Amino acid sequence: MQMHQDDAELVSAFVENADEKAFRTLVERHQERIYGFLLGMVRDPAVADDLFQETFVKAVRAMQRQRGSYTSQGRWLQWVMRIARNTALDHLRSRKRSRMRLVMENEEGLDLDQIVIDGEPDASDKLQRQQQAAWLNACIDRLPPEQREVVLMRHESELTFREIAELTDCSINTALGRMRYALLNLRRMLQETDANELERIELAS
Q1: What is the pLDDT of residue 123?
Q2: CB-based contact 31:68 (threshold 8 Å)
Q3: Between 119 and 78, whose confidence is greater?
Q4: What is the spatial distance between Cα 166 and Cα 89, in angstroms, rounded to a whole number?
Q5: Distant-in-sequence contacts of 172-175, Cβ < 8 A, 24+ apart
Q6: Of 5, 44, 73, 186, which has the maximum CB count within 10 A?
């Protein structure tokens, strides 16, 4: 049955036999990861929908050799992710600004939610988490683009660092370094926020 076919078999069915069902299966299999990446890049569902559609229009044209070409190497998802990345970057360059939502973790598996709420007894409170999310978004907007992108690819699309390195044309060590620097930058922002809040409280007392 087609649902048991791997990506390479589905790609072959579409490229060689114009099997549209095979292509739909590919899209359904990977749409969550690809759309999640695009949504993280632009932080606007309507725009992400448009970019998602544009990504697959480009993919179909390339696979049908109407524009560009596709060389099957058993990495169809990575190939489409590169198209999605370039499509999103083109959009962001035209807008010159974007907002992104990322979640970070370091080598020990510590994610940003743990960093933000560490030591706070009421961390499960919904309002508190909403406030933390708003703070996180504001801080992430201040990260260098290459740091935001690497973390997004890691957490929204669950790509390996090897895949991220290939997509962004850098070494694995560079990709890992960008993750570490992003985490350090966010921790620094947290410390600055805490210091400013303490000063505000002292001035008000």
Answers
A1: 46
A2: no
A3: 78
A4: 16
A5: 175/150
A6: 186
- What are the residue ranges of helices labelled H in the chain? 7-17, 20-42, 45-63, 76-95, 112-117, 126-140, 145-155, 161-167, 172-204
Please tell me whether residue 144 adopts helix, strand or coil conformation: coil
Question: What pLDDT sits at residue 65?
Answer: 73
Tokens (6 digits) for 74: 């058993």
State the span(s) of the chain assigned CATH 1.10.1740.10. 2-95
CA distances from 134 to 100, 111, 115, 128, 141 (A): 11, 16, 15, 10, 11
Tokens representing 191? Answer: 């410390």
Is domain 112-204 annotated with CATH 1.10.10.10? yes
pLDDT of residue 84: 93
For residue 17, CA distances in Å to 28, 71, 94 come to: 19, 16, 37
Q: Is the pLDDT of residue 199 over 60?
A: no
In CATH, the architecture of 2-95 is Orthogonal Bundle (1.10)
Dihedral, 61, 63, 68, 69 alpha carbons, nearest 10: -170
- C-alpha–C-alpha distance, residues 115 and 13, integer Å: 47
Q: Which two tokens stand for residue 159?
A: 């790509």
Here the tokens at position 62 are 């390339």
